[in-house]
């Protein structure tokens, strides 16, 4: 019985480590995708696209680990919440990887075109999104829901910057219709970064439920 319990603890640790590895990889893809856009670096963009395959593989690995744990170990309520939260987090992280891949593709699309404007707010959005995601993964690994307000605050700032970028790009397109092909990809990038912020919020809210059994979905959007 003791050996079975020790084996179960080791399997939970392995699951946690896989989520941590996945989170570190995805955070790197966010940073690299926007760096490739800012620096017009096609090779870095291609690296992001290539690495997203590993994120997809890790999501499948997490799903398999979780299904096996539920089927074979019959976990108690707190451990079951941990396992099901891991599955949801893996799904969010896979989607973030897809968004980073799409940003890299927009980077390649724009690399040979004259820059529309200096990129200031988009890199700020990317840093906020990366920081928010890192906070959420750290919270999951440590089973600590105390960072939820901090993540909500970062998401609100990402939304604010998205609105600024959108308004500025629309104004540029209205002044000169020839800028549309350069402005639309940047609009998409801003939207993707906003969605990454949403995924970080999903994760931290799942962590709150995991640790406290409390549902806080949408409270961040309604607060302050």
From TrEMBL:
Gene3D superfamilies, A to Z: Phosphate transport system protein phou homolog 2, domain 2
Assembly notes: Homodimer.
Primary localisation category: cytoplasm
InterPro entries reported for this sequence: PhoU (IPR028366), PhoU-like_sf (IPR038078), PhoU_dom (IPR026022)
Residues annotated as domain PhoU: 19-106, 122-207
Entry protein name: Phosphate-specific transport system accessory protein PhoU
A GO BP entry: negative regulation of phosphate metabolic process
Highest taxon of the lineage: Bacteria
Protein's cellular compartments: Cytoplasm
Pfam families listed in its UniProt record: PhoU
UniProt source species: candidate division WOR-1 bacterium RIFOXYC2_FULL_46_14
Gene Ontology cellular component terms for the protein in this record: cytoplasm
